């Protein structure tokens, strides 16, 4: 979060926007550690006295005889050593070419068969199938390659008792959560439409076009509040007559060839179902229901870690209470029309009501479709005094939170250095 551009003097930078990396100091070259020297003591042979020479031999004769015997003694003493070396070499060769490959093959991971993602595959989940049975079926058909991903998705969705048997048409290489949601929805014979958390209305229209062939422009033309407010009163007065934020992210299937209206109504119905127990129409913390959805959309784009969402919400509330600009980069990205590029200083000058560097308060409407966890976080924020946050140097998607600017600067520097290390 960076408020350097506001008239209040030096101010914090956006907690989400990455700090500009600084050139890291060149670390001193690694010095070679002195090697330990180990001097082995030379063994000294024990010399026995010269053999006694019989008196019948002259000393010259004895010397010539000794000279003739010495080479033969040396050859006899080297022969066992050479034989041992040859044997060891032979054993080493055999081990290298036969034993080592065999051992490697025993412990090396098996090469998995790769299957291109996106291919249609029909599977049947039998009545009474166990979790292991379903995981095996999905893995063998390459719908989910790793059964561990399936188990994790089932746990995340709380779907242990909700999976339905039957015939399914799925695709290879699907996201495990999408598969579990489809198994919860029940058997299908049509295409699967997955609207992920955090997608904008425009991105949702692109997904609909890819799955059902309804053009993006046709879908966007239909996705107007004025066409649905009579049946969904909570939409009345939504900013710019847009359904942004209200087409609930989930996996859907439709029989036959659905229209844009069919799809929009099903997604709106899902939004109603998901939020029915939250009393969203009453708002919270002085905000209206539509402002809660707007805040939830900002939270959704600021962190992918569910446990952090209430803390992110607390920072937003604290900055609103302190009359500080939110300075959330995700809103700037929405204002400029999307893209994956980093936010630049020129982006911060965009003339848009979504520019929360220039404008105070929340954005005028949602910037994406938030998950239920983000909506709950907006309704029930943590109680903190945090005003800043920055991505953690651990690189695990979490953030470091702080209540004073100096600590934020330190956290930002630490994150910046982690990028260049």
From TrEMBL:
> Which keywords, in A-to-Z order, does the entry hold?
Cell membrane, Cell wall biogenesis/degradation, Lyase, Membrane, Transmembrane, Transmembrane helix
Tell me the superkingdom of the source. Bacteria
Chain spans, region Disordered? 1-79
Is the Oxidoreductase keyword given for this protein? no
Q: Where is the composition biased (Low complexity)?
A: 48-64
Tell me what topology the record assigns in the membrane: Single-pass membrane protein
Q: Which GO terms describe its biological process?
A: cell wall organization; peptidoglycan biosynthetic process
Enzyme Commission number, as recorded:
4.2.2.29
Q: Which residues cross the membrane?
A: 79-99
Q: Which reaction does it catalyse?
A: a peptidoglycan chain = a peptidoglycan chain with N-acetyl-1,6-anhydromuramyl-[peptide] at the reducing end + a peptidoglycan chain with N-acetylglucosamine at the non-reducing end
Instruction: Give a yes or no for keyword Transmembrane helix in this entry.
Output: yes
Q: What class of enzyme is it?
A: lyase
Q: Which GO terms describe its molecular function?
A: lytic endotransglycosylase activity
Cellular localization per UniProt: Cell membrane
Q: What does this protein do?
A: Functions as a peptidoglycan terminase that cleaves nascent peptidoglycan strands endolytically to terminate their elongation.
Matching HAMAP family: MltG
Q: What is this protein called?
A: Endolytic murein transglycosylase
Tell me the organism. Collinsella acetigenes
List the gene name.
mltG
């Amino acid at each position: 979060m960076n408020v350097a551009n506001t008239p209040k003097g030096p101010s914090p930078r956006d907690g989400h926007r990455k700090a500009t990396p600084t050139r890291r100091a060149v670390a001193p070259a690694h010095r070679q550690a002195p090697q330990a020297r180990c001097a082995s003591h030379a063994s000294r042979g024990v010399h026995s006295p010269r053999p006694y020479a019989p008196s019948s031999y002259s000393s010259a004769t004895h010397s010539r005889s000794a000279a003739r015997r010495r080479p033969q003694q040396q050859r006899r003493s080297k022969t066992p050593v050479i034989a041992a070396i040859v044997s060891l070499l032979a054993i080493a060769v055999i081990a290298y070419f036969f034993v080592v490959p065999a051992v490697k093959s025993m412990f090396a991971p098996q090469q998995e068969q790769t299957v291109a993602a996106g291919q249609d595959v029909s599977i049947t989940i039998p009545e009474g199938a166990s979790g292991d049975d379903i995981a095996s079926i999905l893995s063998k058909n390459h719908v989910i390659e790793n059964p561990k991903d399936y188990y994790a998705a089932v746990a995340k969705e709380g779907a242990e008792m909700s999976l339905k048997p039957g015939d399914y048409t799925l695709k290879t290489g699907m996201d495990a959560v999408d598969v579990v949601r489809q198994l919860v929805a029940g058997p299908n014979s049509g295409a699967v439409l997955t609207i992920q958390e955090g997608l904008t209305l425009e991105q949702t229209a692109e997904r609909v076009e890819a799955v059902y062939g309804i053009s993006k422009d046709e879908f966007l033309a239909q996705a107007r509040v004025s066409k649905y407010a009579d049946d969904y009163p909570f939409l009345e007065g939504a900013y710019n007559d847009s359904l942004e934020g209200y087409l609930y992210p989930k996996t859907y299937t439709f029989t036959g060839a659905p229209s844009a209206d069919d799809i929009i109504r099903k997604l709106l119905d899902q939004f109603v179902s998901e939020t029915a127990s939250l009393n969203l129409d009453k708002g919270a913390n002085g905000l209206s229901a539509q402002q809660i959805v707007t805040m939830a959309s900002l939270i959704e784009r600021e962190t992918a870690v569910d446990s952090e969402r209430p803390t992110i919400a607390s920072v937003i509330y604290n900055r609103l209470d302190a009359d500080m600009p939110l300075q959330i980069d995700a809103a700037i990205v929405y204002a400029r029309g999307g893209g994956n590029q980093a936010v630049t200083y020129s982006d911060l000058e965009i003339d848009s009501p979504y520019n929360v560097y220039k404008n105070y308060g929340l954005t005028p409407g949602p910037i994406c479709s938030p998950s239920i966890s983000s909506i709950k976080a907006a309704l029930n924020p943590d109680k903190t005094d945090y005003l800043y946050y920055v991505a953690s140097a651990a690189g695990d998607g979490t953030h470091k939170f702080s209540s004073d600017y100096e600590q934020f600067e330190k956290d930002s520097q630490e994150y910046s250095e982690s990028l260049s290390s």
